[in-house]
Amino acid sequence: MSRNDSSDDVVGLVTVGVLIVFGGTIIWLMKTFDVPWDVAIDTLPGLLTWVIAAAAWCFINLKMDTGFTRWGIPAAMAFLIPAFSPILKYSAGVRETGGLMFNDMVSWYGTGWGLTLLFFGVFAVFFAIIYWLNQRF
């Protein structure tokens, strides 16, 4: 067995591991939020981007010991809204059929302004909680 065969095995194992994680996440999204396959697949990139960004933020702040970790929590929670926007739109009633979008009976949280309102609302509420906790303790 040469060294090249060993690296090919590692690449294969990593690929299989990544596919299992992606598949498991898609199945979790489908079961948890009761959405179809295509909505779960549309949600996956935003969710994985959020997980990577949140983990990087925590790692950097813990390594630098700046104390900014608690101030990143409102941003992290607010950015869950764009990550889960395909699921929010689906549950609000937005349906695309054959390239046409039907918005007849869409709830407010499925529209663009509703998602924006949710984003800034979550952001403001979490900053208010942190401000209140800093004043209190």
Summarize the main sheet: 2 strands, antiparallel
- The pLDDT mean sits at 87
Strand order of the largest sheet: 1-2
Shape: flat
The whole-angstrom Rg is 20 Å
Uncertain spans, ≥5 residues at pLDDT below 50?
none
CA-CA gap between termini: 62 Å
H/E series, N to C? HHHHHEEH
Structural class: mainly alpha
Amount of beta strand: under 5%
Number of strands: 2
Helix content: over 70%
Total helical segments: 6
Question: Which structural traits does this protein have?
Answer:
single chain, 137 residues, mainly alpha, two-stranded antiparallel ribbon, 6 helices, 2 strands, 77% helix
What does this structure look like?
- The protein is mostly helical and 137 residues long.
- The chain is built from six helices and two strands, in the order αααααββα.
- Strands 1-2 form a two-stranded antiparallel sheet.
- The protein is flat and about 55 Å long.
- The protein starts with a helix and ends with a helix.
Structure summary:
Helix content is 77%, strand content 4%. By secondary structure, it is mainly alpha-helical. The protein is flat and about 55 Å long.
Question: Layout of SSEs?
Answer:
Layout: H1 3-33, H2 37-64, H3 69-78, H4 80-83, H5 85-92, E1 95-97, E2 100-102, H6 112-136
Antiparallel strand pairs: 1-2
Helix pairs in contact: 1-2, 2-5, 3-6
